[in-house]
Design brief:
With 398 residues, the protein is of the alpha/beta class. Helix content is 40%, strand content 16%. The chain has a five-stranded mixed beta sheet.
Length: 398
């Protein structure tokens, strides 16, 4: 479809101006003094940078919180509604799309069952969703989050076991078909971006998002930026050992996090002794709450595995906050006490206990995070947006 060029893209801004916009989106509203300190700029330089942004309406002055002598300290905030971004989360059998403003507020959602895992068919469905979410053709970029070993800003799907895709140039296929610059990200990192921009991670420069359920993943924000590592594999912690004993995972590891915490492992730990293949996590929780010993043991073991895993992450990185998310959060009413005990047991004595928050995240929330990734990409690497090609394997931009 024809793409509108009427709206000014954030990619057209100069690097120093993009830095101002990025900081306001991440932590605003901010006073000029706070903004100058965060960007390590002099007050005069900051005023020079922000004056044209305010005059153009891209940035607005909020009401001053308190009257002070001299120039009032009116906070600056982005006019987020002037910019549209699209985000999608692709699972093994579904596609979840959102349209959002630059601040990550969702304006519209679309859900589709995948007709096939064939790349041509999936790409066609993605294009249909793009056109439905953005009929005016004003979206500045599309972010797609899905499982795999991608960097935070990538153009190729790598090692996605749910779809059976590897080395698939999905970003190029979609941008060529729609005209919308497209960037890919691992789904846990996409969720983390949304949590950072306008979720429970807002206000933290350093935190982790730990996702539990079908799989285990970790998204990391360090120094105010989502990190993916040098090869895109940061956060793949499912096979981290958490106990010397315990069951085997599907790869033959004894006592790794996946063997105790994955949804399939929990269902098997309870379903096998009961002779039931129909149990889901909600059924396991119901059994545990009714006093079933097998279910109680399985969820206690899962809680201990989670607490041990969190402790290892916090010990290594000294994180002030950990956000729990994913479709496995339903186990927490039973598993929470065991998680807290294991966390306290395994934290290094010199490490402060992190703030733990449970974040109920539907697939729409994961898609919203992908829209935030698209905005972050435009602000971080605009030279790639014009060619619709994300930056390749550049750790400094992750």
């Amino acid at each position: 479809m024809h793409r509108s060029t009427d709206a000014t893209s954030l990619s057209s801004l100069r690097p120093t101006t993009r830095a101002v916009v990025r900081e306001l989106l991440r932590a605003g509203p901010l006073s000029r003094a706070d903004l100058a300190r965060r960007l390590d700029l002099s007050p005069a330089s900051l005023t020079k940078l922000t004056r044209p942004l305010v005059n153009s309406g891209l940035v607005r002055e909020e009401s001053a919180q308190s009257a002070r002598p001299g120039r009032p300290g009116a906070p600056l905030a982005m006019d987020v509604g002037r910019h549209r971004f699209l985000g999608m989360k692709i699972t093994g059998d579904g596609l979840f799309g959102v349209s959002a403003d630059a601040g990550g507020t969702v304006q519209a959602t679309v859900h589709r069952d995948l007709l096939s895992t064939d790349i041509t068919i999936v790409a066609k469905q993605i294009v249909e969703v793009v056109n439905e979410l953005d009929p005016e053709g004003i979206a500045q970029a599309l972010g797609i989050g899905l499982a795999g070993r991608m960097l935070h800003f990538d153009d190729t799907v790598r090692d996605n076991g749910y779809l059976g895709w590897d080395d698939v140039p999905l970003a190029r296929l979609i941008s060529d078909a729609t005209g919308v610059p497209t960037v890919l990200s691992g789904d846990a990192r996409a969720l983390t971006a949304g949590v950072q921009w306008s979720g429970p991670g807002r206000g933290y420069d350093d935190f982790a998002v730990v996702t539990i359920g079908v799989g285990i993943g970790v998204g990391l924000v360090l120094g105010g930026q989502v990190r993916a590592g040098g090869h895109g594999t940061a956060g793949h912690v499912g096979h981290t050992p958490v106990t010397d004993s315990g069951p085997l995972c599907e790869l033959g590891h004894r006592g790794c996090a996946a063997s105790l915490l994955n949804a399939a492992a929990i269902r098997a730990a309870v379903g096998v002794p009961h002779g039931r293949a129909d149990l889901d996590l909600a059924g396991v929780v119901a059994l545990a709450e009714a006093g079933d010993l097998a279910a109680l043991r399985a969820l206690t073991d899962a809680g201990r595995a989670l607490g041990t895993l969190i402790a290892s992450i916090v010990n290594l990185l000294d994180l002030p906050a950990v956000i729990l998310a994913g479709d496995g959060l339903g186990i927490m009413p039973v598993a929470r006490a065991a998680m807290a005990a294991a966390l306290a047991e395994h934290l290094d004595p010199g490490t402060r206990a992190p703030h733990i928050e449970e974040f109920d995240s539907t697939f729409d929330e994961w898609a919203r995070g992908a829209a935030v990734v698209a905005c972050q990409w435009v602000l971080a690497a605009p030279e790639t947006v014009g060619t619709h090609r994300p930056t390749q394997r550049t750790p400094s931009r992750t």
